[in-house]
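Researcher: Quick test of sequence recovery. Tokens follow.
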């Protein structure tokens, strides 16, 4: 089936362009653009919807919170990942949204592991999720370094809630086969058919449910279902399953349980026990909201849960061009060795983005800029890159790097200076330090008879408009001297091996009179005497298709075979001392980061391309 043309949104912020100290993405005093969620929260606060709520100091049932204090948090939101993989850029949107709303409205955001699905979860994922949320700059559960909440801690309450529903006539054990249940559920045009088990008495159902828990039946033999309405136009209300038999060891509760709650039952209860006010999820859960509300109403009737209940709101998930945002599919890339692990700099995981050179401020800015809406769309990848550029423009120290080196020899150097002479040079680390801040110490390096320049900066026969090195033309070696190109040496095959030039005396940058010789271009360079070899990893998009997995496409087919190119570059000496994870602007090339894993300070410089200086997508 042909795909409809993607509706791709591209966003930039004209107010925050180069060299201007932009409003920091993390500052809280910046006026945030409003959105429908902010409007809802503001109106709830104005109407006092949640005033009078009690907070028992920890998650709990109605009685627990009744014994507590008036809730010091004006609102409570939550970020509830399932610990079945590493977080990705879509989760970053949700994290910034939920933690950001709590921060902006005097609330608290909970980090909760939605670990009700025993098979797929692992503590490796739990730890990496904690690290990622912390790295993005957020604190959860109202105290620094608080333990995250875990849905599995609520299994006892969930069981109690299920028992209550059975006793109140709102749930029954269904022994139909999964196939019978599927057929009897009906479809959009056809009402469902009641299960023959639907009218069992509460006592019969309770006995059966206890037997389910006690392990008397094999996996899948029966389920507990809510008793709502088999004719409801919303299929989710046609007696949804709320508990199933599943013999699996859980990473938190071990083998205590052989029955586990279904997500749709567990999630509203988790929210309510934690006194969440605004439960924000992605649009695909919209049809689940009536069940969410039904369940809350029943459990409040039974005095199990405190009132008012949480309310669910839906927003459009993030779709980013050239990117996959599904933990399962990202896991496939890792386990099939299409990438080098979860933190491969090509991965849209938070650990991958971090290793690529992304900063928390850039991701927060991105989340802010794309905003929240109620309709699905695709965000152009360049929007994300623009946010990183904007953050790094002001912060990343500059450095000279020659990515495709060729040697340039100044043939008159020995006469102008002396054989072997090295002239010290310096350049600012930050040409435009943010207002009110001390500029960082300058970079120091030296120039001698031979320097490395980029191959692209020389043309024997210049194309029209070319302003850099060609025979007879003068350029400035940035931060050094003006030179005049005199030609080049070639090997037997006619490939040029060295560029030849003469140095123009008395033109050293920053010395009196140095500007009297006019040039049309300045090029970056690295001294042969003190330049350092560095491994540089040039990354490109991981997929060639803008929507790699849309409409069930096999995303493996559109993997970009050239998404990683490793080169040896020449870099100025200061860069060898970069700290792992430190960002730089390699002047004229782009933003690079010292690799957090492989870069060894002083001895083995390794840099990753984070983003180019200009937007090159689609070109
Ligand atoms: P995945 O399909 O990658 O496993 P998920 O939604 O199943 O994603 P969860 O761990 O359940 O992953 O998600 C935690 C939270 O992150 C949820 O509230 C979910 O709505 C949100 N989230 C996940 N993906 C996106 C996305 N692409 N855009 C915005 N929010 C997202
Ligand atoms: Mg999920």
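Model:
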């Amino acid at each position: 089936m042909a795909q409809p043309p993607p509706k791709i949104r591209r966003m930039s912020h004209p107010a925050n362009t180069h060299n201007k100290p932009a409003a920091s993405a993390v500052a809280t005093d910046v006026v945030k653009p409003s959105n429908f969620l902010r409007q809802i929260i503001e109106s709830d606060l104005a109407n006092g919807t949640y005033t009078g709520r009690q907070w028992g100091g920890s998650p709990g049932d109605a009685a627990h919170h009744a014994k507590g204090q008036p809730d010091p948090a004006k609102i409570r939101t939550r970020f509830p990942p399932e610990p079945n993989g590493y977080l990705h850029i879509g989760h970053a949107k949700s994290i910034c949204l939920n933690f950001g709303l709590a921060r902006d409205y005097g609330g608290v955001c909970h980090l909760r592991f939605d670990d009700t699905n025993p098979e797929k979860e692992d503590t490796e994922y739990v730890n990496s999720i904690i690290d990622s949320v912390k790295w993005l700059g957020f604190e959860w559960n109202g105290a620094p370094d608080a333990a995250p909440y875990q849905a599995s801690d609520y299994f006892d309450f969930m069981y109690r809630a299920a028992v209550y529903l059975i006793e109140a006539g709102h749930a029954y054990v269904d022994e139909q086969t999964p196939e019978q249940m599927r057929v009897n559920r009906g479809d959009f045009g056809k009402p469902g058919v009641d299960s023959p088990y639907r009218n069992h008495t509460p006592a019969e159902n309770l006995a059966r449910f206890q037997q389910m828990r006690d392990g008397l039946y094999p996996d899948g033999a029966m389920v507990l279902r809510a008793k709502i309405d088999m004719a409801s136009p919303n299929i989710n209300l046609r007696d949804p399953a709320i508990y199933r038999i599943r013999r699996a060891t859980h990473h938190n509760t071990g083998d205590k349980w052989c029955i586990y709650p279904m997500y749709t039952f567990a999630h509203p209860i988790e929210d309510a026990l934690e006194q969440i006010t605004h439960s924000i999820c992605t649009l695909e859960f919209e049809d689940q909201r009536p069940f969410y509300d039904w369940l809350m109403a029943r459990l409040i009737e039974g005095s199990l849960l405190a009132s008012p209940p949480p309310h669910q709101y839906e927003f459009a998930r993030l779709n980013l061009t050239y990117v996959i945002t599904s933990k399962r599919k990202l896991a496939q890339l890792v386990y099939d060795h299409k990438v080098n692990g979860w933190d491969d700099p090509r991965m849209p995981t938070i650990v991958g983005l971090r290793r690529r050179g992304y900063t928390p401020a850039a991701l927060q800015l991105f989340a802010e800029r794309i905003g929240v809406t109620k309709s699905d769309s695709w965000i152009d990848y360049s929007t994300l890159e623009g946010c990183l550029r904007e953050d790094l423009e002001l912060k990343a120290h500059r450095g000279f790097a020659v990515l495709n080196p060729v040697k340039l020899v100044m043939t008159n150097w020995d006469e102008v200076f002396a054989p072997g002479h090295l002239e010290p040079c310096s350049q600012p680390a930050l040409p435009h330090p943010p207002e009110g801040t001390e500029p960082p110490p300058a970079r120091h390096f030296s120039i001698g008879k031979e320097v490395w320049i980029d191959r692209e900066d020389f043309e024997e026969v210049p194309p029209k408009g070319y302003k850099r090195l060609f025979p007879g033309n003068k350029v400035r070696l940035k931060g050094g001297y003006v030179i005049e190109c005199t030609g080049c040496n070639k090997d037997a095959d006619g490939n040029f091996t060295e560029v030849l030039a003469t140095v123009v005396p008395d033109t050293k940058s920053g010395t009196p009179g140095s500007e009297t010789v006019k040039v049309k271009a300045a090029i970056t360079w690295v001294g042969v005497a003190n330049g350092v070899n560095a491994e540089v990893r040039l990354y490109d998009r991981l997929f060639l298709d803008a929507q790699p997995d849309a409409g069930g496409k096999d995303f493996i087919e559109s993997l970009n075979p050239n998404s990683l190119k490793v080169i040896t570059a020449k870099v100025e000496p200061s860069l060898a001392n970069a700290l792992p994870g430190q960002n730089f602007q390699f002047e004229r090339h782009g933003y690079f980061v010292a690799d957090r894993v492989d870069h060894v300070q002083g001895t083995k410089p390794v840099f990753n391309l984070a983003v180019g200086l200009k937007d090159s997508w689609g070109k």
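The first strand starts at residue 8 and ends at 9.
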